[in-house]
């Protein structure tokens, strides 16, 4: 049986939400959490910020109870596995499964999670880079494969990413290009268009209607379209897609959740398929996480820009996420 390292403290710093509202998100000291049966304790070296936590802070998320340590993902090292399955110091990532909503999540120096949602890897990349990858990659990989049905490396055709300068949009575009697909991505701002162009993506200004311009580039339509803006642009995204092409609804940057008076025969052109994707830790193969980290480390893949914040600046990080002040992935560093 493994025991906790002698250097493990009795308390930890964590960002706790006591009620909806950013004023209720504070960094405080908490007792060190103890893993129960089937659980492990991770020393969190970095955690990604996600739209999911924004929904928790603004009171839009379901399944919340308070007080709650936020964070649907974390990257770090095994600190304690009472059953000895994982060795202390093993690099791991974890995500979803109720983190940050049903139980305390990754906005902390330590987190306790079910062993089954832990993915192992080995990397010498800086922790802020590692911390930007797991949940964003899980959603990008799942959206492209399960959602759009793309086969992975060796693909061909053009993919549309609606909401291209979001962290998920940038990662999905980079992954699709790495697999061999051409990518068209949208942004509402000139700075976003410049960023997309610099990353080898065909950029389109998004005024709400891009289908006609997409078809000027790809007359038959795109083979797959990833909808990250949400309901306001979904119908136009569908109109950009080829017969037998697929549209995957994976994001709601607009915070618009439902489609009023959805009429499938009117919305869906002949042969265009509409799917959705929202995955878990088990939906990301550990081999794919390792492959992407290796390619990022070798300089062969630029997944997305990263902006890091110390844990004590978590409120400012949330303000920046809400305002879109920075493109790419925002990452928290609990030990900075």
Helix count equals 10
Strand content: 25-35%
Poorly predicted sequence stretches spanning 5 or more consecutive residues:
none
SSE string:
EEEHEEEEEHHEHEHEHEHEHEHEHE
The helix content is 25-40%
Anisotropy-based shape = globular
User: How would you describe the oligomerization state of the chains in this entry?
Assistant: single chain
Strand elements, count: 16
Distance, first to last CA? 31 Å
Indicate the mean pLDDT. 94
Main β sheet profile: 7 strands, mixed
Description:
By secondary structure, the chain is of the alpha/beta class. Helices cover 27% and strands 27% of the residues. The chain contains 10 helices and 16 strands. It has helices at 51-57, 127-131, 134-147, 167-179, 190-198, 211-217, 231-239, 264-267, 286-297, 314-323, and strands at 11-17, 25-31, 39-48, 68-69, 73-80, 91-95, 110-114, 118-120, 158-162, 182-187, 202-205, 222-227, 241-249, 273-276, 306-310, 329-333. The strands form 3 sheets. Strands 3, 5, 6, 7, 8, 15 and 16 form a 7-stranded mixed beta sheet that branches. Helix 3 (134-147) crosses helix 4 (167-179). The radius of gyration is 20 Å and the shape is globular. The model has no long low-confidence stretch (mean pLDDT 94).
Task: Summarize, please.
The protein has 336 residues and is an alpha/beta fold. The protein has 10 helices and 16 strands. Helix 3 (134-147) packs across helix 4.
Provide the fold topology.
Elements: E1 11-17, E2 25-31, E3 39-48, H1 51-57, E4 68-69, E5 73-80, E6 91-95, E7 110-114, E8 118-120, H2 127-131, H3 134-147, E9 158-162, H4 167-179, E10 182-187, H5 190-198, E11 202-205, H6 211-217, E12 222-227, H7 231-239, E13 241-249, H8 264-267, E14 273-276, H9 286-297, E15 306-310, H10 314-323, E16 329-333
Parallel strand pairs: 9-10, 9-12, 10-11, 12-13, 13-14, 15-16
Antiparallel strand pairs: 1-2, 1-4, 3-5, 3-7, 3-16, 5-6, 6-8
């Amino acid at each position: 049986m493994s025991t906790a390292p002698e250097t493990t403290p009795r308390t930890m710093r964590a960002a706790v939400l006591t009620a909806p509202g950013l004023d209720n998100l504070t960094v405080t000291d908490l007792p060190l959490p103890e893993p129960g049966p089937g659980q492990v304790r991770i020393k969190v070296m970095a955690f990604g910020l996600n739209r999911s936590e924004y929904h928790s802070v603004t009171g839009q998320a379901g399944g919340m109870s308070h007080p709650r340590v936020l964070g649907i993902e974390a990257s770090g090292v095994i600190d304690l596995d009472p059953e000895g399955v994982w060795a202390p110091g093993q690099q791991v990532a974890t995500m979803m499964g109720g983190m940050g909503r049903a139980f305390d999540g990754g906005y902390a120096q330590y987190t306790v999670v079910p062993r089954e949602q832990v993915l192992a890897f080995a990397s010498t990349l800086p922790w802020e880079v590692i911390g930007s990858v797991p949940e964003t990659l899980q959603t990008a990989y799942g959206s492209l494969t399960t959602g759009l049905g793309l086969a992975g490396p060796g693909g061909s055709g053009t993919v549309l990413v609606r909401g291209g300068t979001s962290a998920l949009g940038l990662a999905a575009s980079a992954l699709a290009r790495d697999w061999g697909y051409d990518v068209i991505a949208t942004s509402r701002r000139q700075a976003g268009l410049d960023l997309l162009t610099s990353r080898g993506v065909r950029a389109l200004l998004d005024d709400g209607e891009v289908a006609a311009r997409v078809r000027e580039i790809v007359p038959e339509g795109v083979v797959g379209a990833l909808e990250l803006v949400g309901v306001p642009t979904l119908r136009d995204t569908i109109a950009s897609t080829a017969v037998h092409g697929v549209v995957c609804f994976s994001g709601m940057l607009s915070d618009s959740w439902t489609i009023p008076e959805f009429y499938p025969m009117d919305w869906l052109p002949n042969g265009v398929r509409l799917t959705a994707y929202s995955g878990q830790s088990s939906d990301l193969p550990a081999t794919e996480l390792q492959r992407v980290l290796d390619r990022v480390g070798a300089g062969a893949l630029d997944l997305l820009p990263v902006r890091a914040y110390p844990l004590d600046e978590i409120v400012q990080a949330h303000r920046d996420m809400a305002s879109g002040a920075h493109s790419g992935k925002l990452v928290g560093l609990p030990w900075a």
